[in-house]
Amino acid sequence: MDLSAIVSEIAEAMQSETDRGAVATYIPELGAVDPDQFGLAIWQPDGEVFAAGDADTPFSIQSISKVFTLTLAMREMGESLWHRVGIEPSGNPFNSIVQLEAEHGKPRNPLINAGAIIVADCLAAGRSAGEAQAAVTGFVQRAAGDASIAINPAVARSELLTGQRNRALAHFMSAEGNLRNPVEKVLEIYFAQCALSLTCRQLALAGRYLAMEGQVNDDVLTPPHRVRQILALMLTCGHYDGSGAFAYRVGIPGKSGVGGGILAIVPGRASIAVWSPGLGPNGNSLLGTRAMELLAARTGWSVF
Ligand code: DON
């Protein structure tokens, strides 16, 4: 299989697509991103990275960060995390509030906004907001083996000033007793993690531990059974109300972000990062999803 040719062909095909979706504008800083970009990077266990298009352009990973914070929270809390957040798909948009009232402030899963806010609250225990941000950034740097990875402060500020919907989710969960720290402290951590800025190449490296049973070289980031649990959640919940379609069309556990990125993991075989800023109707990258579909077809990497 000539992966170098495959990634180039996919990048070329995506460059000429005219329907590129729409960039997210509810976070003003993301609305300014040029939708005409596409990047793809594939890391393989022998260490080789195949990249094409804008694979070295940094973008806002947004909800993809939820995978990294979930890894940290599971490490710190184990199964007790599931008292605070569920493990079922929501079938609703990423920022939906409807289930929270009927379900007493316990979000369906850790990959929707409400669930990730609970995870951020868990990481806030015994830490200042700054310490929690440093723990998350440090984890991503360690996973990627790249100390230059950082939060884009303009993106974090942009969401801090406008994120009233997340504020509503957090206040509701606080009213239900499921948020232990002050709303603004938790949101500061959550908005900062979403504003982590990575290139496709860096993101593919950051995902290596998920492809390799939790380990990068000799560094154990999390045990193998946790990786299997995280990948199961990515497959069932990683694309929100588009998770079924992604599993059907691509067949690889993935996590999307409203910045247009997708991290997809083929256990034992590859960590894949794809990015194109324009989104489809469920808030997932339109061309990123299309590219993943082509890649799965060309490689036979569906997990099924
Ligand atoms: O909380 C938000 O709305 C954003 N910071 C992240 C949402 C997101 O990435 C949804 N993904 N497709």
UniProtKB/TrEMBL annotation:
Keywords of the record: Acetylation, Hydrolase
Binding-site positions, substrate: 63, 113, 159, 166, 190, 240, 258
Coiled-coil parts of chain: none
Entry EC no(s): 3.5.1.2
InterPro entries in the cross-refs: Beta-lactam/transpept-like, Glutaminase
Enzyme kind, highest EC tier: hydrolase
Domain of life: Bacteria
Gene3D superfamilies cross-referenced by the UniProt entry: DD-peptidase/beta-lactamase superfamily
Catalytic activity: L-glutamine + H2O = L-glutamate + NH4(+)
GO molecular-function term, one example from the UniProt record: glutaminase activity
BP terms from Gene Ontology: glutamate biosynthetic process; L-glutamine catabolic process
NCBIfam families: Gln_ase, PRK00971.1-2
Listed HAMAP family: Glutaminase (MF_00313)
Subunit: Homotetramer.
Cross-referenced PANTHER family: GLUTAMINASE
Family listed: Belongs to the glutaminase family.
Protein name, UniProt field: Glutaminase
